[in-house]
Amino acid sequence: MVYTSAHILLKEKEKFEALFQYASMGILVINDKSEIVLANNFLLSQFGYTNIEELVGKKVDALIPSRYHHNHTKHLSNYSKKPERRPMGIGKDLYGIKKDGTEFPVEISLSHYGADEGSFAIAFISDITKRKEIENAVLEQKEQLADINLKIEELNNDLEQKVELRTQQLQETLVQLQDSKEELTKALSKEKELSDLKSRFVSMASHEFRTPLSTILSSASLVAKYTETVQQENRDKHIQRIKTSVNNLTDLLNEFLSIGKIEDGKITAHYTQFNIKEMLETVCAEMQNLVKPGQHIQYTHAGDAVVNLDPALLRNVILNLLSNAIKFSPENGIITISSATKQNEIVITVKDSGIGISKEDQEHLFERFFRGTNASNIQGTGLGLHIVSKYIELMDGQISYTSELEKGTEFIIKFTVL
Prior knowledge:
The protein is α+β, with helices and mostly antiparallel strands. The chain is built from 11 helices and 13 strands. The strands form 3 sheets. Strands 1, 2, 3, 4, 5 and 6 form a 6-stranded antiparallel beta sheet that branches. It has a 5-stranded mixed beta sheet with strand order 8-10-11-13-12, with helices on one face. A two-stranded antiparallel sheet has the order 7-9. The chain starts with a helix and ends with a strand.
């Protein structure tokens, strides 16, 4: 049998329709006017429709909850300008709306093609309700774990009280057994065993809170002794020490709270357009008041100053990096910060002339509670860079660094502009 071109074309069309209609995921085709052109049977079932005619010619917004229409229109416009194969809504929750008004979570992959009739976008849509239910169950388990951790912390506090009581009992025993070396050694071993039960977190927190509290206590005591008017300068000095220590305590608490919020998913990026040059100039001016004698912060900017990022998260990132640069650099050191906007990229660098980071420590730099071996005598919790990396991750950015011992460190932050 000889097949004509029309017959072959018909057969190919039948194959395409079979693939299209019997696919195990929803497939939607829209034109450059955001109008629905085609939809397979699986998609009709997903969205509660029985007839393709109910959708053809309608705007794709008919399948999207109304509260997302504005952002979807903007994203679709951006996609039309630069179409490419990619997943849609990375890092964001996407939802579809059925004919009866029921919303359900979806996952969407986009593609495109051109024809004589114009340009078309193809969306492959999967219902991820089951996956979301599993994720919600995981979050619930995480909350339960947080409750368990709270109970463990309460038990740990109770343990500390027991340690204090046992230590007091031990001191009384030492008085009675001071002539017995064997009994004294046994008692000291018991004390050490109890003390070692404290977790790393409690030990670190206790140390970091003790230093500013001691400063506050000593300065408050000294302020009380300066009763004469001519001693106001001395009073001001100790009042400033108290304020600084309180600020340090506040910073510590904010770091602990930030870690908890990040792990619980309570911090998200809120994008808005703002002038990055003006913001960084303001931050540098604020931090210049906190530098060591002779230190100076130099800032430069290149390119367009208006960017679309989360200004609050970015401000916290820069404050943390500048604070570290000041803390780990010597007096009279220069700290440089730069920002530059290019066609598809925003780059920010913070460079100091400080003590640097060893090759061994660089492998653990962004881990929680990690502190460099050469920074043991410098105040800190080991949480700052971990929080910085998480904030940058929330804004879909990347952070890298170069460092050498005694020659300083440079952090490089990059954000891709779509």
